[in-house]
Amino acid sequence: MTELSKGSKVVIIGGGIFGASSALHLARLGAEVTLVTEGKPGDGASSRSLSWLNSSRMRSNEYHRLRMLGIDRYRTLSAQRPGVNWLRFDGGLTWDADDESNKIAKVFDHERSMGYDAVLLAADEVAGVTPGVDASAICKPGAIFNAGEGWVDLPSLITVLLAEFARLGGKVISDCGPASVAVTAGRASGIIMADGHRIAADAVLVATGAAVPKMAAAVGKRIPDGTLISLLVKTKPIDVPLRAVLNAPRVAIRPTPSGALVLDSAWSERAVSALPDGSYDVKNWVIEELLEEASAVLVGHPALELDDIAMGAKPIPEDGVPVLGRLDEVPGYYLAFSHSGATLGLIVGELLAGEIMTGAPHPLLAKFRPGRFVG
Fold first, then answer.
1. Does residue 284 sit in the same domain as residue 353?
2. Cβ atoms of 241 and 299 closer than 8 Å
3. 367 and 249 share a domain?
4. If we measure between CA atoms, which residue out of 231, 227, 233, 307 comes closest to residue 273?
5. Is the model's pTM score more than 0.70?
């Protein structure tokens, strides 16, 4: 493991939350950092994320701890930037379908056993805790309210992070197409851009979302891939009292800085089709039904109007657990691949930057190493 000195050159491929956070933390540690993006910073999976800050439901102790540290870093950021409209902590409310799949009681017991702030509410108690929810939509087992949860608008956050990155001398090269990692004598030595231009580096971090497994495979490392297609629907601004993130059986909802709502769900994502040219398609009825599902769980059943649709790859490791850190097979090559980009964005950037500069693996990432996969 090689320790890098101040002024060492690090190149990051990928301008989502992992790339932007890692770039800034590396610059704070004195590295000379270049961030290379295929398109615009933040226009990939980070732009299509519900961006719910949480550690709810069933997770391992190690994953729960990392997520809680992720939320902690957002609380620090919130204290440093009081009153911003792109980061809020108004809690999260979750309930399951009223059938045999309902696991709310089991989830509640698990969350409490982990020390997670959770309250099990009957339907008629919800309005007194978090406004804006139609109590009739909540099934008999009740709903879990997690007061410590929140949401972030990732494109806004990425803009803030990269502004400080630029002030520290960091360089962003955007709209340059897909880049690859250059390997010399078995070690990552920089990157090769789509136009053939090379940038030398002492270390490279690949944070390209759904493209990570393919890029790792190019250097002989297998990262099992469970990537799905995401669909995020944005409404026009609407005056509703909802402030918490909602996770109902048929729709998830969060507010936005503009007063709009963004919506997603597992069933609507499954209805998206990938086309041969690499684009995506979804039928109008899917969007209309998702809007109706959102209206049905809100007080007064407001008419929600469509503003925008975002579709694309949702990066997910096959085992659902983040893949973070150095490739043992290729010194100087690091990667970040996870579905939990929003919650983990700040803490992962901090920990990876520390590992890259010191060469020492951080114990918090021990369970998330690429080395857990053979081949």
1. no
2. yes
3. no
4. 231
5. yes
Residue 299 token pair: 């007080």
The order of strands in the sheet holding 171-173 is 171-173, 32-36, 9-13, 203-206, 333-337, 323-326
231 lies in the same domain as 310: yes
Residue 308: inside a domain: yes
Q: Which of 269, 285, 314 is the last residue of a domain?
A: 314
Q: Which two tokens stand for residue 146?
A: 């997690």
- What is the domain-level CATH number for residue 216? 3.50.50.60
Residues 6+ apart with CB under 8 A from 75: 89
Cα dihedral 133, 134, 140, 141, rounded to 10, equals -10
Are residue 289 and residue 337 in the same domain, yes or no? Answer: no
Residue 26 CB partners (closer than 8 Å, separation 6+)? 10, 12, 33, 353, 356, 357
Reported as half-sphere exposure (CB side, CA atoms, 13 A), residue 245 has a value of: 25
DSSP annotation string for 142-171: -EEEETT-EEE-HHHHHHHHHHHHHHTT-E
What was the pLDDT predicted at 101?
87
Q: Are residues 142 and 31 in the same domain?
A: no
Residue whose tokens read 């702030």? 117
Domain match, 310 and 162 both: no
- The whole domain housing 177 covers 9-47+154-223+319-372
- Which parts of the chain sit beneath pLDDT 70? 1, 5, 375
| Cα–Cα dist 30/265, whole Å | 42
For 147, what's the count of Cα atoms within 13 Å in the CB-facing half-sphere?
9
**Helix/strand/coil percent split, the chain, to 5:** 30, 25, 45
Q: What is the pLDDT of residue 6?
A: 74
Q: Are 14 and 208 in contact (CB under 8 A)?
A: yes
Length of the chain in residues, anyone? 375
Residues 99, 130: one domain? yes
State the Cα–Cα distance between residues 91 and 128, nearest whole angstrom: 13
Provide the number of structural domains found in the chain: 2
